[in-house]
Amino acid sequence: MINILLVDDHELVRMGIKRILEDIRGIKVVGDTDTGESAVQFCRKHNPDVVLMDMNMPGIGGIEATKKILRYCPDTRIIFLTVHTENPIPAKVMQIGASGYLTKGAGPDEMIKAIRQVHSGQRYLAPDIAQQMALGQLSGSEENPFDSLSERELQIMFMITKGEKVQDISNQLNLSSKTVNSYRYRMFEKLNISGDVELTHLAIRHGMLDTNKL
Fold first, then answer.
1. Are residues 97 and 187 in the same domain?
2. 183/207 Cα distance (integer angstroms)
3. What pLDDT, on the 0 to 100 scale, is given for residue 58?
4. Which pLDDT does position 13 carry in this prediction?
5. H or E segment to which residue 172 belongs
6. Are 51 and 30 in contact (CB under 8 A)?
7. 19, 116: one domain
8. 14: which of 24, 32, 160, 187 fits an S-S bond (Cβ 3.0–4.6 Å)?
9. Per-residue pLDDT for 132 more than 80?
10. What's the number of CA atoms in the CB half-sphere (13 Å) around residue 161?
11. Mean of the pLDDT values across residues 56-63?
């Protein structure tokens, strides 16, 4: 039996996935939650086999939650299930240890295939994402300015564009406010922008944000 944890801040999404998986032989949804923090707590207590993880959520979000889960539960496999299709996001999450990447446009059969594949120890990338990443590597181009950001800068970018203040970010990531601001200003420099509003506009323009959550 493959035990699944669902992590998404939209209850309707979690309910929909539950209904898809509840009749699938060999797969059981053992929990669902709406924040990265609660996902980490659940994994430390129950050690599920596979986590279906959203990217943008209140609090620490999917990237930091993934890092923590893999630190405490190295055998847990994590599949990102998100609206984001543009690099550098898929590449970044695979680099931090995620086992799979699906978009929310994936069909039920593909999701089930991904769950079984990562549970067997393999990785799974949605075909369109895999093609995009391969083409990006072949071309060597960096058309998306967010490619230049580190994992931490990318994480803080998501938190800023959700409207979170520096102090809130520092509390959630266990960093000083000075350190968060250092990342913030370094990010502005790399992106050639001067403030949070510009950052949000640039992120929307390059498909980095789920505008339904803004």
1. no
2. 21
3. 80
4. 92
5. helix 166-173
6. no
7. yes
8. 32
9. no
10. 27
11. 86
